[in-house]
Design a protein that fits this description.
Distance between the termini: 56 Å
Helix content: 40-55%
CATH architecture of the largest domain: 3-Layer(aba) Sandwich
Strand content: 15-25%
Order of helices and strands: HEHEHEHEHEHEHEHEHEHHEH
Number of helices: 12
Mean pLDDT: 90
CATH superfamily of the largest domain: Bordetella uptake gene, domain 1
Length: about 325
């Protein structure tokens, strides 16, 4: 017993010493998509205020592929010292593990949740050459030519993928999925006319909607969103049972010391209060949202996983 107590005190002392000296070098923030998508935009906007709060540089590193699963798998196997963290949404943490048997990580067991950082609706946008100006007209166009309209997303298993598959199921239409490695590339495909429709994150699509290079039809939440002016919600647009929003959060590898997770949580919470950051995010239809604690974020993830699984089951959505 005396030996166990000694070991416990030694380990506790090491953890406390690590927390006091942390961070002693730059921190890598891993993004599971190519540059230009929402996760990348949010990460780069946050890097300066977060680095200031931590007293170290934040290096944004893109590891795209497999709906962000490549990045998530990399972080789950990284050293738990607080120098590699992940930004991820329910795409990588919840949707992909539910629908993709090739995902090798367990979202609940293989990560230390830090905090939620943002929340926003998705935006339904189309190429202006498509003769539709509302969701009702999009549904009518898709029913007129089943399998002829293509929709782009940020990858198989991403939330935009789930959102559009659910739309297909609830609206009774058949649009063809074309996955890309980021929201930015997905939106560019609609801009170029390679695909016609996208359900995209607000930061990746709204600047083009505002510039009238794409046509926004609606947001994917049931009601209108104050974050995205002038676009109706899905109930107003004619699909009242549809309701989807996207969040992003920070995650550390499993077994990261609680003191380090707490330092990351406190610093992120402080960074999210930065007026300039909140303004940048709001301009692109995104709200800065911090969890009350890492434990609160973990509870939120468990509830979100339950709700998402039910949404997939009740919508009858099928994935390619």
């Amino acid at each position: 017993m005396r030996i166990l107590v000694t070991v416990f005190l030694f380990l506790s002392g090491c953890a406390a010493a690590m927390a006091q000296s942390y961070p002693g070098k730059p921190i890598r923030l891993i993004v599971g998509f190519a540059p230009g998508g929402a996760a990348d935009i949010i990460s780069r906007a946050m890097s300066e205020p977060l680095g200031r709060a931590l007293g170290q540089s934040i290096i944004v590193e893109n590891k795209p592929g497999a709906g962000s699963s490549i990045a998530a798998d990399f972080v789950s196997k990284s050293s738990p010292d607080g120098y590699i963290i992940l930004i991820a949404s329910q795409s990588g943490m919840i949707v992909n593990p539910l629908i993709n048997r090739n995902v090798t990580y367990n979202a609940e067991k293989d990560f230390a949740p830090i905090t939620q950082v943002t929340s926003s609706p998705l935006v339904v946008a189309v190429n202006p050459a498509l003769p539709v100006r509302s969701v009702r007209e999009l549904i009518a166009e898709a029913k007129k030519a089943p399998g002829k309209l293509n929709f782009s997303t940020s990858g198989n298993g991403s939330l935009p993928h789930l959102a559009t598959v659910m739309f297909n199921a609830l609206a009774g239409v058949e649009m063809v999925h074309v996955p890309y490695k980021s929201g930015g590339l997905s939106v560019q495909s609609v801009l170029a006319g390679d695909t016609q429709v996208t359900f995209a994150t607000a930061p990746s699509v709204m600047p083009l909607v505002q510039a009238r290079r794409l046509r926004g039809l609606a947001v994917t939440t049931r009601a209108r969103s104050a974050l995205v002016a002038d676009l109706p919600g899905m109930e107003e647009a004619g699909l009242a049972e549809y309701d989807v929003s996207i969040w992003y959060g920070f995650f550390a590898p499993p077994a990261t010391p609680r003191e380090v997770v707490k330092r990351l949580f406190d610093s992120t919470t402080l960074a999210l209060q930065d007026p300039r950051l909140r303004q940048i995010l709001a301009q692109d239809g995104t709200e800065a949202v911090a969890s009350r604690s890492p434990e609160d974020f973990a509870a939120f993830l468990r509830e979100n996983a339950t709700v998402t699984a039910r949404m997939i089951r009740e919508s009858g959505a099928k994935f390619d």
